[in-house]
Amino acid sequence: MEKGKRILILGGGPAGYVAAIRAAQLGGQVTVIEADKVGGTCLHRGCIPTKALIASADLYDRAKRAKEFGLEVEGVRWTLEGLRSRVRRIVDPQEKGIHALFKNHGVAYIQGRGRLVGERRIEVARPDGSLEAMQGDAILIATGSRPALLEHFPFDGSRVLTSDDALRLERVPPRLLIVGAGVIGCEFACLYAALGVEVTLVELLPRILPTEDEEIAGLLDRELKKQKVKVLIGASVAEIATEGEGVRATLSSGQAVSVDQVLVSIGRRFNVEGIGLESLGIPQGKHGEILVDDRMETPVPGVYAAGDVTGGMLLAHVASREGIIAVTNALGGELRMDYETVPAGIFTRPEIGRVGLTEQEALDRGDQVQVGRFPFRNLGKAHVLGEIAGMVKVVADRRTGRILGAHIIGPHAADLVHEASTAMSLEATAEDLARAIHAHPTLPEALMEAAEDLSGMAIHLPRKA
């Protein structure tokens, strides 16, 4: 490692702050420039707040089901201030913790808006209006993303919302329309439905969660309807108009939907405006993303980018890994980013976990595909938890037995998928996974049984005809 090199990091989210700590551990002199708060979207407007609210909604729903567990519980209710207070109690200490880590590792922190102004040079506009210029040996751009907007929608933060607005929770509407049934839309649908909101979910494409395995998405569609979420697929919202205290949305079919709020979750935009990319001739892709190689370096030597701004997998843990790879290479290392075994979680009810290729992706690639399945309904631990909806699906190469992907919908799916991710990283076969002894009664037994099903040997499945 080339210790003592000056690393300037533009952005303090999951890519930037993690990269800063790793660079300091490797002997770099690190400065982080952040216009808002450290932790980024993940900590303040994404992963942590949404999952905190989903956990509260899930506990509320389970409390209402207490009789199924032989318990008598009365008077369970939620309050808006109670939900907001819990989010603050979780987020605030984590933000302080990042600052403490910076101090512990000797990372300098500057609050202000940074802009590239020359070769490895950044100018920072501080909140008091002053300007400060600094020179580095390497620069990491980690400015993240924000909700995408539709220009013809009247976003006002009160009745027509982005996902950022929805997390401020100024009120919980009786009726909510969610535009976009991707990950964010489905998570919010489950959250609000659990709180008793009448939710309508609209998706332009032929099914919800279009990037996920089709079987898994179909199972979630069924569960959403059980939660009384109205799902409208193959439809778009042509017009949104405020109407008294509410909103009237006109769909492409001509159908009108009257609600109290509309939440638009149609994707993300990259934070590339005003950061000086043009000053160094840093190239961008067709959607504005910063182009990098597998070392996370741009075509401009010494300038790296990581996280959402590169337009890849918009996941906090991916951003962190990309940031680590970028600064390691900036300090003389030689690491490369590999996305094949990246796990992902979707915190719907039930949860979804996935890693690797879907069945259709593997078929489209030309693989000889074999699939093993196991329903949670056949698993003792799932019955103990009272959560029997869902399944585990393992996609493997018929010739080699190599695991190509794993897809889980059910209890703790986002945790369970890491066993498959680790197996894939170690190039284990489905037979290896099936042979590993799993404790009973536990949820990971479902992965073992799904792997066994690939050869028709799952113990707790009826014999196939």
How are the SSEs ordered, and which strands pair?
Layout: E1 6-10, H1 14-25, E2 29-34, H2 40-44, H3 47-64, H4 80-105, E3 108-111, E4 113-118, E5 121-125, E6 131-135, E7 138-141, E8 145-147, E9 160-161, H5 163-166, E10 175-179, H6 183-194, E11 198-203, H7 214-226, E12 230-233, E13 237-243, E14 246-251, E15 256-259, E16 261-264, E17 268-270, H8 277-280, E18 303-305, H9 316-330, E19 343-346, E20 351-356, H10 359-365, E21 369-375, H11 380-385, E22 391-397, E23 403-410, H12 413-425, H13 430-435, H14 445-453
Parallel strand pairs: 1-2, 1-7, 2-3, 7-18, 9-16, 10-11, 10-16, 11-12
Antiparallel strand pairs: 4-5, 5-6, 8-17, 13-14, 14-15, 19-20, 20-23, 21-22, 22-23
